[in-house]
Design a protein that fits this description.
The chain has about 425 residues and is of the alpha/beta class. The chain has 2 domains: about 120 residues, Urease, subunit C, domain 1; about 290 residues, Metal-dependent hydrolases (TIM Barrel, Alpha-Beta Barrel), CATH 3.20.20. About 35% of the residues lie in helices and about 20% in strands. The protein is built from 15 helices and 16 strands. The strands form 3 sheets. Strands 6-7-8-9-10-11-12-13 form an 8-stranded parallel β-sheet. The longest helix is centred in the middle third of the chain and has 18 residues.
């Protein structure tokens, strides 16, 4: 009996992007992040090309340096037609998986109620938790996939997604399973964060410690065992969880090899930055309030300050002091905080405009904050966040625009023509 052996050869697909007016955020060597005064600097190449093999950037440079094409087999030409090419945004803080919108609370805000007052009346996080409990997992996935695809069309190529609208084991697992399914069915880079300590469920209103024990002793071990989350998170704030709670959760997560990202200093300074940094958090997010002590703690750490200006915009509250943080020599990342209650927008372009207008960041600082720095904030800086040989081919092509500055300047206008993730064009749905 003869056995027929078939050898399969993997054919590499090459793509050439040509006629790029500016290839933006180029680097010859991968960087961890950009900080302080260096955030003002953006490298770019005018009249450029970029070469991709399968899902990876293999070369780029000026069109005058391009050697042309010798072999047209398995080659696709992508004509940028004079548009600019940017690495896709990394949105390092979202709550994208939720059951339904909360526009009634929007009206409550217009009528003068604060975020805290709405929460006390049964709105806010607890409102979303009720809706998660009653929605079918498949329906939740379909709704979330539609949002994710819409975010991609606006230039987002990597996204962190938190749980936290479950507040019980069954519902938290439901959200994390949906995130896992999104990751399996999307070209976007997706990181999952377990945010069981997002709020205190009404049934534990008078026994916060009992709920925190449930999060740490029952939820966390199962999530770790099933590998459903890369990070844990906690809302460290008055009326929610204190620094002792934060330390307890982060230390428990560290034992499972799970790093942390934390909500801190949104309304009050209660020591959340110190607790986060001391326990190895990769980022501290919000920072609408920040002290000199916090800045000193962050300096020299491996923790990324992450600002969420569209949350401040929607809640009509204080904006983070980006200038103070950057001028202290620190890096800054920007993210959407996309969620149904305090930031119902996944548009990173709008975040960039707000950062310029309200945080007084320059367009160059904004680009660094939404690409290389936000890539670090979600642990993907080795493969995303810049145009660099060896990184994934996640990029978007703009319409013809006059300058890099035109994107945050022209807020409300979508200037993105095409989006590519892992070298594949993402078709709008």
């Amino acid at each position: 009996m003869k056995i027929k052996v078939i050898f399969c050869t993997f054919v590499k697909m090459k793509k050439i992007v040509k006629n790029i007016s500016k290839l933006v955020q180029t680097e010859q060597k991968k960087r961890k992040w950009v900080s302080g005064k260096n955030m003002q600097n953006i490298s770019f190449i005018e009249n450029a090309f970029m070469e991709i093999k399968n899902d990876t950037i293999v070369s780029f440079g000026s069109m005058s340096e391009w050697n042309g094409i010798d072999d047209w087999n398995n080659i696709e030409i992508i004509d940028a037609e004079g548009g600019m090419v940017f690495p896709t945004y990394c949105d390092s803080h979202t709550h994208l998986v939720f059951a339904d919108s909360r526009e009634k609370e929007f009206i409550d805000k217009i009528n003068g109620l604060s975020y805290q007052e709405i929460a006390k009346n049964g709105g806010g996080i607890l409102n979303s938790a009720k809706k998660i409990k009653n929605i079918d997992e498949d329906e939740l996935y379909e709704k979330s996939l539609e949002r994710l695809n819409s975010a991609i069309q606006l230039g987002t190529g990597a996204i962190e997604i938190k749980s936290g609208y479950g507040l019980n084991l069954e519902s938290e697992l439901k959200i994390l399973r949906v995130i896992k399914k999104l990751r399996e069915n999307s070209d976007a880079k997706i990181k999952a964060t377990f945010l069981g300590a997002h709020a205190i469920p009404s049934e534990f209103k008078n026994n916060k410690q009992k709920y925190l024990d449930l999060v740490i002793k029952e939820m966390l071990p199962i999530i770790a065992k099933e590998k459903l989350a890369e990070y844990v998170d906690i809302f460290c704030e008055i009326g929610y969880f204190n620094t002792h709670d934060t330390e307890k959760l982060l230390q428990a997560a560290n034992k499972f090899g799970i790093r942390s990202k934390t909500h801190v200093n949104q309304f009050n300074i209660i020591g959340g930055v110190k607790a986060s940094v001391e326990n190895g958090a990769i980022s501290v997010d919000h920072l609408e309030e920040i002290s000199n002590e916090d800045l000193e703690i962050l300096k020299g750490s491996n923790c990324m300050p992450t600002l969420l200006p569209s949350c401040s915009f929607f809640l009509d509250m204080k904006y983070s002091e980006a200038r103070k943080i950057i001028d202290y020599g620190l890096p800054v990342a920007l993210a959407t905080d996309y969620n149904p209650g305090s930031s119902p927008s996944y548009n990173m372009n709008f975040v960039g405009s707000l950062a310029c207008i309200k945080l007084k960041m320059t367009p160059n600082e904004v680009i660094n904050a939404m690409t290389i720095n936000s890539a670090y904030a979600m642990g993907v800086e080795d493969e995303l966040g810049s145009i660099c040989i060896g990184k994934k081919a996640n990029f978007f092509i703009t319409k013809k625009i006059s300058s890099i500055d035109f994107i945050p300047y022209s807020f409300g206008e979508n200037l993105i023509q095409k989006v590519f993730l892992n070298g594949k064009e993402q078709n709008s749905l």
